[in-house]
Design goal:
It holds the Pfam family GDP_Man_Dehyd. It catalyses: dTDP-alpha-D-glucose = dTDP-4-dehydro-6-deoxy-alpha-D-glucose + H2O. This protein is α/β, with parallel strands linked by helices. It contains 12 helices and 13 strands. Strand 1, helix 1 (11-23) and strand 2 form a beta-alpha-beta unit. Helix 6 (188-197) runs parallel beside helix 8 (247-257). It binds nicotinamide-adenine-dinucleotide (NAD) and 2'deoxy-thymidine-5'-diphospho-alpha-D-glucose. 2'deoxy-thymidine-5'-diphospho-alpha-D-glucose is lined by residues 83-85, 122-124, 176-177, 187-188, 191, 203-205, 210, 212, 247, 271, 278.
Amino acid sequence: MKILVTGGAGFIGSNFIHYWLQTHPQDDVVCFDALTYAGNLENLKDIENNPKYLFVKGDITDRDAVFDAVKQVDVVVHFAAETHVDRSIMDPGIFIRTNIMGTQHILDAVKEYGKRLHHISTDEVFGSLKPEDPPFTEKTAYDPQSPYSASKAASDHLVRAYVNTYGIQATISNCSNNYGPYMFPEKIIPLFISNLMEGKKVPVYGDGHQVRDWIFVDDHSRGVDLILQKGTMGETYCLGGGNEVKNIDLTKKLVDLLGKDDASIEFVKDRPGHDRRYAIDYAKAKETLGWEPLVTFEDGLLQTVEWYKANQEWVARCKSGDYQTYYDEWYENQLAMKH
Ligand code: NAD
Ligand code: DAU
């Protein structure tokens, strides 16, 4: 089988490619990625000479490039997206172009050539849970709250519309917060690990009592694999870690693992429209695919911290250049507006 992985040079995409080449060595994998600030060929350096792997630099907003790439494979796993909520608040336009228009090109191409698609989405499309609410399921109504989650919700609706209208062969997964190696140091876990390694403070938004459901990235990859093997066309699968953690508790764990103390924690102005709680009920994936997360938060977090300690030059390169401009605009503003 030949599989096209869009966004394969990013965090989850690069972990997925490593996972796929290890678990399906007979398959050919093509990584299609525009190499935005979040895409990094260093993430795939160890496999660049693998004869079963090919990199194609391409943008999903370029319709012809998408058609050329999709035509040559059997299956498309679509990770490519703008993914950081804070950036979507600063500049929604690129989220709409990439996440919605780009996905339309993927859909038109799989429709044209009759290919199988798996669309990667997020639990953020469901909005925010109250403390007493049950976790999200595949039946939860969409209620996206940020420009990022609204753009992902739109892309999910388009996938379902193409299944319903044109009968394309597609599935969707909505996954909770991933963590692990190669995560760009703008999201909370890698940002906080790298700040602590650099002797900087960590900016906790608001009261720090927001909850996220953390899943180790390899568990996500295995879920996508099982959906490709056993999933029913047109169906959606919710994948989660079964692991709800308050941001402040996560922060304290990281501070501890990095050998620092609470003086490293700085409470800053809240993210506008900040979703309070996400949690996933993955019963459908468990019952129909035999999937459940296997990596404990303790093991996964330790493994992640060790990876960032061993890859400080990778982190430094990610945090240079354009990132610094973004950091200055966003985080310095947050730090300046403490409670
Ligand atoms: P990421 O930001 O680390 O990587 C995104 C990748 O997409 C990068 O390699 C980037 O270069 C590429 N890309 C961006 N725009 C592109 C374009 N126009 N054309 C081609 N490539 C482009 O993101 P991630 O965290 O790995 O997320 C991957 C997918 O998983 C996204 O669809 C995201 O919505 C979804 N998701 C992420 C999480 C999470 O916790 N990170 C959870 C659930 C779902
Ligand atoms: O739920 C899945 C989603 O998880 C994915 O779809 C997104 O692509 C991914 O970015 C992630 O979104 P979040 O907004 O939950 O992730 P982030 O790491 O940005 O923030 C996690 C929590 O930590 C959130 O409550 C905001 C808070 N936070 C974040 C940063 C960057 C802080 O308190 N301080 C920070 O500096």
